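Input chain follows. Return structure tokens only.
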Amino acid sequence: MSEASRFSNYGESLTWLYNFRRILPKRDLNGIKHLLAILENPQEEFESIHITGTNGKGSTVAMIASILKAEGFKVGMFTSPHLSRFTERIVIDESEILETDVLSLLESIRDVVDSIQPIGKEIGFFDIVTALAFKYFAEKKVDVAVIEAGMGGRLDATNVVNPLASIITNVSLEHTDILGKTVFEIAREKAGIIKKDGVLITATDDDAVYSFFKEVCRRMKSRIYRVGFDIKYSRLDSSLDGQRFTVEGLKEVYEELFTPLLGYHQIKNASTAIGAVESLSFKGLNISRKAIYEGLANSRWPGRLEIMHRKPLIILDCAKDPEAIRSLKETLLNDFVFSKMIAVISISSDKDISSMIRYFSEVVDYFIITAHKVMGRAAEPSIIAREVEKYRIPYELAHDVKDAIQKALSLAKDDEVICVTGSVFIVGEARDLLKQVLS
């Protein structure tokens, strides 16, 4: 390794990484394949489960990883984006990658990237992060890595693995400037993770999308199972501590399951996770009932209907698009009791702000509108305010997330709810702030 390639510290290594483009002008897998080949294809050193979809990916990843860990496997987990720390993206058995490991791995990857770029292989931010994760998992000798696609699927950097199972949680409009203008176009991109002679678990509610997936699986000679049909579920009860539910899986019936994750949609995600781990039996890996029960009971996924405080009730949720906001709204109406809802909200500028506010206005009594600090991503609060004004709901603007949280805490009574939502980024900021304020 040349001296020029050495970083002086962890912060400098991340600065180098974040200077790479998030979206490359030409989307293909050539860059990541070339990078991984020079790194001796670390993704071939471990088994994997690959997940894409519009919503529910991270929760499903967390549940599957928890089940596999309960079975005794050494499990890697690769997700994005992070809430508070870059190291949250790469986890083994619930332990985040160390900053020192990030530093050393980025130093070795930097040498490779520097050698690739002059020969015309374009490398982006997510290519490097994916390579870092795969190299780390290989070096630490994980048994299985549960891998979340960053965007879409077909041309996502993670789509170089040959997984034991593929999962497409659901499909709705997202990243329409990149993935396509219609749900069907986006479904085509996500179907790119379906592998020959593989297995697909999907939780899509769209019959046309399911029919398309089924046809792709037929051509690829891949099995396909649909949550809600081949895998059935029903909720027994719920509280602020979690939910009890029953799942009729591919192989067995699981009664009196429990997850601490809140919201009816999490039962659907849990059913998807069960279908995925049951399908591993087709590849010779049998997961016990005990591991499924234990893994779901121990699942954690911060920032998703996460309760930070009880009086007033403070809820964090990373709902970042209309479908996620609609799911959050329904959960708040059906599963919570409160006299008033105060929403602290920031939305990224590339989202369907109008639809998000339309759905959320059905449950919110007062908006505190701000902008998260991710440069170039947050919508101007005035744009969000114009949408709120359509529904004649009172609001105020806050200078930043800290100001917004302070305003909300000063307004909320014990029987009221503060809900922080609209983006992963505002939830990450608010979570860190609330930990300090409420400790």
